Amino acid sequence: MEECKVYREQLSLYIDGMLTQQESLVLEKHIKECKDCREELDLLREMVENCQSLEEMEPPEHLYPMIASSLRRSGKRTAVNNIRKKWLKPGLVSVAAMLLVAVAVKGIMPNIQKQLATQDMAAPAAEAPAADTYSIAENREFSFKMAEETGRAGMAGAGISDKDMSMEGADMPADGGTFSVAQAPAGPGEQLIAAQHERKIIKNAEMSIEVEDFNRQFDAVQRMAEEAGGYVESSRSYVRKHAVAEGDREFMEGNAVIRIPNIEFGGCIERISSLGKVTNRSTYGNDITLQYMDTETRLKSKQVQQQRLIEILSKAERVEDILNIENELNRVRTEIESYGTQLRGWDNLVQYSTINVFMTEVEPKDTQVSVLKMDNLWDRMKRGFIRTTNALMDMVEVIIVGVGYALPVAILIGAVYLGWLKFRRNKTE
Amino acid sequence: MSAELELVERSKGGDLAAFEELVVMHQKKIYNLGYRMMGSEEDACDMTQEAFLKAFKSIRKFNGKSSFGTWVYRIAVNVCIDELRKRKKVKLYPVVHNDNPEGDGSKLIADTEDLPEERIERQETRKQVQRAINRLSEEHRVIIILRDIQGRSYQEIANILGLNIGTVKSRISRARQSLKEELIKQGELKFQDNVKTV
Fewest Cβ atoms closer than 10 Å to its Cβ: which of A33, A139, A279, B88? Predict the structure, then answer.
């Protein structure tokens, strides 16, 4: 029966005619001899015949309408899906690519952005006198130089005087104020003398302040100088144009240099600070004690020399001698006068401190309830409309230009993506 | 065939009418597969609908390497097998139809000239065969339906099921063996005595 097992497995193929000619012949020979296998074959044949007799049936009438309606229902969805599948992903990819490129372009070429920004800002910038920025720059440079000098002086070994000075400076409202010793050939002895002397310090302050009512506060500063017994050295005010966001009001800006008596310095700074919001305040002093003392000493010696010359003159008898002495006396007097002038100038500088005030007008904020301003409401509305429209146009322009920048890269990325899609589809099929 | 391909192309473009023509062309075969697989008219309709729906949704994936009929058939086979497995899990199965496994039997006898006795006997045999088929595993059931009921060639079957021809050969052989055993169990095979000796 063992050999029958092999033949049994072939029976199925045999009735389907799937055996090779030789296999069939061998099998047929075996079937003739083996009754069991013959019966098995008949059994299979009958079974298959029975199966074949299960005839194909007509589908029920309602099948097709059922399928059709379900297709119609899904068809709409499928159509949408197809569009989505076909375009959504590549669309998203290219949009993302464009954004990426736009960002990259912005990063690489900030000029574009700048150009657009300056278009808006160019006009006001041109109108506003550039002088104020220059003066700030100069002042910065100036104070920087002073700081440098201070450093050098400190390194030269003026330890004590430096300490003393900073202690004296402490009573001034000093925000980053620097105290400079302009020429400090300071030997220890002289420093001691200097310490005993009354200090000669030229005080300066620079303040930037934001106010809500420019005209009133700017006047107040100037009045303050006069009230304190000082004077206004210079003053300048001008209209500052603002960006769209700050509204339609015109804002003022100004710069005043006032000189006030030394003793009023601290108080004055406090009073100016109270006018508005201080955005920057710096004070620095220029210590001229040593030069002052030198000059004073020289003046005294010259005075002594003058005294002596007068004495010699009274004793002189020869005309030639008298003329010589008078010449010398003249020279000494001139020197005495020049020293005196220098000392008086210094006295003035030391007695009067300089305060440089930069004042900017800003929009009033939470300090008062704003009232609806009815004047030229229509005008302002029109201006606002035009501004917004222009800004919108600018934006559209930027976007269009940006698309131009992004397009080549987007096309490239899109092509690569489509290629990848195709490759993947081929692979899955 | 080229007409069919044209319809397929139109369907890919979302033309529903074209696809409906394809449905008309193939629904009978699919329905019969469903009927033999599931064993009831109602389930057969559901499976046919489901298969065509799936085919329509994924028509873009059809690449024309096989005929559209084979492709849809493959989808239908998978739909049926999935459904049968699902039912097995939730124990909705078995679907054994003792009353009338062939649905509308009147259609079958319309053209036969058999004697009434013989006719009844034959009908009885068919009933038993269908019942035995319903007891087979999904794998064997598909193969019996494709080969012995629908009479498809080995190559066609290989294409539909995505198998190579060798596997198809051995699977047909084994499916017939298990069908035979089912029939013996039911005591419906004519040569019972002989069979026992095997």
Answer: A33
Could you tell me if A97 and A128 lie in one domain?
A: no
Start-end of H helices in A316-353? 319-351
Report which of A249, A2, A236, A9 is spatially closest to residue A129, judged by C-alpha positions: A236
Helix, coil or strand: residue B93: coil
Determine the structural domain holding residue A356 and report its residue range. 121-361
Q: How far apart are CA A54 and CA B146, in angstroms?
A: 12
**How distant is the Cα of B93 from the closest Cα of chain A, in angstroms?**
23
Question: Tens digit of pLDDT for each residue in A26-42?
Answer: 888 888 888 888 888 88
Give every CB contact of residue A378 below 8 A, 6+ residues apart in sequence: none
Q: How far apart are CA A416 and CA A411, in angstroms?
A: 9
Return the pLDDT at A131.
40
Q: Tell me what ipTM this predicted complex has.
A: 0.75
Taking the Cβ of residue A69 and every Cβ of chain B, the question of whether any pair is shorter than 8 Å is answered with no
| CA–CA separation, A359 and A254 (whole Å) | 5
- Largest distance between two CA atoms of chain B: 61
The torsion angle over the Cα atoms of residues B108, B114, B119 and B121, rounded to 10 degrees, is -130
Query: pLDDT for A214-223, tens place per residue?
Result: 888 888 888 8
- Residues of chain B with Cβ-Cβ distance to A69 below 8 Å are none
Name every residue whose Cβ is closer than 8 Å to that of residue B98 and which is 6 or more positions away in sequence.
B127, B131
Asked whether residue A179 falls in the same domain as residue A204, the answer is: yes
Nearest partner of A346 among A409, A421, A401, A292, judged by Cα: A292
**A-chain residues within 8 Å CB-CB of B191?**
39, 42-43
- The letter for the amino acid at A80 is V
Cβ–Cβ under 8 Å, residues B26 and B72: yes
